[in-house]
Amino acid sequence: xxxxxxxxxxxxxxxxxxxxxxxxxxxxxxxxxxxxxxxxxxxxxxxxxxxxxxxxxxxxxxxxxxxxxxxxxxxxxxxxxxxxxxxxxxxxxxxxxxxxxxxxxxxxxxxxxxxxxxxxxxxxxxxxxxxxxxxxxxxxxxxxxxxxxxxxxxxxxxxxxxxxxxxxxxxxxxxxxxxxxxxx
Length: 184
Prior knowledge:
With 184 residues, the protein is an alpha/beta fold. It contains 7 helices and 6 strands; from the N terminus they run H-H-E-E-H-E-H-E-H-E-H-E-H.
C-alpha cells in the first residue's frame, strides 16, 4: 500500500523497488519500507483539518508536478475542489506557455475554483479563459498579484468542506497559505 496520494506515485514506488532490489533488499523489507513512507510538509501531504482537506504540495512546482497535484485534487469526491496555484520558477524561455498549459489543464479537469497567484500565474488565467470561452470550463477563477493580496482578501473564498490544493515553487512561500487555512 502506497500512502502518498497520486497515480504518479506508483511509478516513483516502482523505481524505488528496483533500486532496493539492486541493493539486495527482500520483498518483506521493501513492503515495510513502502508502508512506512509518510509525506513531509510541502510534499504532497494531505492534511485533514476540521474545516478542509488540504493537499500541501507547496515545496516545489513544475508543469508535470503541477498537473499531478491537479489530478490528485480532481479525484477528491464529495467536496468543492479548489486549486491555489502560484508561479513555477526556473522554467526557461517557455515559462509563460507552460503556465498557460497548466491553467488549461486545471480548467479541463473541472476544478471548482482556481486561484492563481503571482506574476507568472497570469498565464494560468489566460489558459483558463481560453477553455472557458470554448465552453470547456464552468467553474470560477480568480487572480491575485501576490501572496499578501490573496491572504488579505482571497482566503475568504475558501469554504468549510473544501478540498484545497496549495501548490507553487517554494520561493512563493505558500506554506503561509497552508498555515492560514489550518488556523481558520
